[in-house]
Amino acid sequence: MSRGEKGFGIIVTFCVMFLFWLILSELFDAFHLILGGICSAIVTLISHGLMVKGKSQKMLPKSLRLLFYIPWQLWQIVLANVDVAYRVLHPKMPINPLVIEFETSLRGDFALATLANSITLTPGTITIFVEPGKGKFWVHALAREPADAHLVDKTMQRKVAHVFME
Amino acid sequence: MLLVNVIVTIFLAIGMFFMFIGAIGLLRFPDFYTRLHATGKCDTLGEGLIIVGLIIYHLFHYPGTSLATVKLLFLIIFIFIANPTAIHAIVKAAYRRGLKPWRWGEGRR
User: Fold this and answer.
1) Contacts with A84 from chain B: Cβ below 8 Å
2) Neighbouring residues of B29: CB distance < 8 A, sequence distance ≥ 6
């Protein structure tokens, strides 16, 4: 990480933390602003490396694509809940759990975390384990059909890859 | 105002319904992993819908203090990020420990 990138990370983290303070406190007098500034500075010193890992390539288009990905993801969450509700309330409980594994082309930390969380929130699947080096996922599925969505169909993997341009 | 109240009630009711489903799933499903399917997903959407209902209520009944709605919105975002991450952490810990997933035809655990 070069010096310029580090400064960029510090500035971004400080601005986000200070904005967060303003929204949560709702107090705009000098005392609380200075207090907020000090707290934000301390948090920034400790954790600026966590939030911004250098200047990422093509940050703006990625953020825009992520914004378009979220509504689709929300719809998938609704479908997931209806699916679970059906399986829970059905008298015979139509579940047949299995563990599947598959490899993806994703390598970035944020991309892998997004796909892992998306898998957990979509119908009938939970991410058990991710191997970052190979982009390999172990997934627990409630039944055969939700597992096939990741093994055969791969819609979600393609969408996440599209968002993060990998 | 009546229309707003009806919409808010619908949101709250659907949210409660999904929380309820999560609780039933916790009792009915046979093992650790399948129970997490029920509680994890249903809690996420249930809490989300309830908070959306609260946001609408607040916007129309207390229009002066709109920053509170922003706080509620933050709650939704954090729940939607933290919930799947927590589920993943729990499942990973269990899997590492060697807990075998339940198969069709086995007894309840």
Assistant:
1) 21, 25, 37-38, 41-42
2) A88, A93, A95, B35, B37, B38
Burial class, A41, CB count within 10 angstroms (exposed 0-12 / middle 13-18 / buried 19+): middle
Strands annotated E in chain B: none
ipTM above 0.85, yes or no: no
DSSP 8-state code for residue A143: S
Tens-place pLDDT, residues B48-61: 999 999 999 998 88
Give the separation between CA A69 and CA A139, rounded to whole angstroms.
21
pTM: 0.81
Q: Do B44 and A127 touch (CB under 8 A)?
A: no
Q: Which domains does chain A have, with CATH numbers?
A: 3-51 (no CATH), 59-164 (3.30.70)
